[in-house]
Description:
By secondary structure, this protein is an all-alpha fold. The chain has a domain at about 75-305. It is built from 15 helices and no strands. It has helices at about 1-10, 15-40, 45-60, 60-85, 95-110, 115-145, 150-170, 205-220, 225-235, 235-240, 245-270, 285-295, 300-320, 325-340, 345-370.
Amino acid sequence: MSRAQGSFGGAQTWPRSLREASVISLSLLAAFAMGALFMRLVGLHPGIAYYQLLRGGLGSVHGIGETLVRFCPLGLCALAVAVGFRAAFFTIGVEGQFYLGALGTTLTALELPHLPAPILIPLAMAAGTAAGSAWALLAGWLKVRLGVNEVIGTLMLNYIAVLLIDFLVRGPLRAPGSDAQYTALIPAASMVPRILPGIRITWTIVLPLLGALGVHLFLRRSWAGFCAQAQGINPNAARYAGINGARSVLTAAGISGALAGLAGAAVIQGEFHRLQAGIASDYGYTAIPIALVGNTSAFPTLVAALLFAALDVGATLMQLKASVPYPLVKLLQGLVILCVAGLPMLPWALRFRRGLPDTVMAAGASEGDQ
């Protein structure tokens, strides 16, 4: 029972949590050390570069605000990926679900401009959430009913969603009298207000926190979450235990799409206030490594999303003040992913490598005896 609780629903012990935090901290130090080495190789000063990176992302009120603005949709998209991966629904479709969520929110807000803000804000947000969930459920249905691989299915649905938005903002939904590729502004009553004047962060910042709490409760405290994770760990064992695998996949897909759609709604209502081409900013694709860095757990995934948001925002100042080229910034992000996701597996890989020759030799000897 204790092992099952540790895997699915129980609280982790403090020593294990501290050990994981230590491994992640060492992995981050290794990533930044390798990044410093690359900077030195091209003639840059790592200390100045990292100072500007920290200053740009977290060193001022404006920088913190911009980091949180990017963190909001990035965190929700990463949670969407994490939920799908836990149920072995390896979704690549968060980008498309984000677009559908943005579309659903925009259409609802534009069609109901006379509703008061206390009704229109949650209604438009719910419409975006439902649109994202429906788009993900389509991919889930293709998987469980027709056997379509979810990686291929969600990836193809991404292209459909992106091209659909491009068509709509160029034609039927384009703002009247404008040649730009965006819709009219949504009504003021549907815009989420800012927390402080002069800073772009709005009350949508609470959405990733609520989303992480919901994901945590779903995975750790609900029977549906237990079934979804059992399906993800071993579908054959889950089937033998009487768990409906198709239902678990669809449940995880629906929740994943809802989180991605909510991210699209948050960007429309809290940041851009209109639908436009390229609004997703690759949130859906960036969320995949973030979820892996967070070990597909709710709150660690949010911490990883905050780190990547700070890296993205701080990278601008690092380029301007320390002359660090943008490809080197992306390299640093890749090193973070590589170290945090890969270094914890190194001891296991070394043990496996040392034991491999004996295993192979034993198998060969048994075949010779036969």
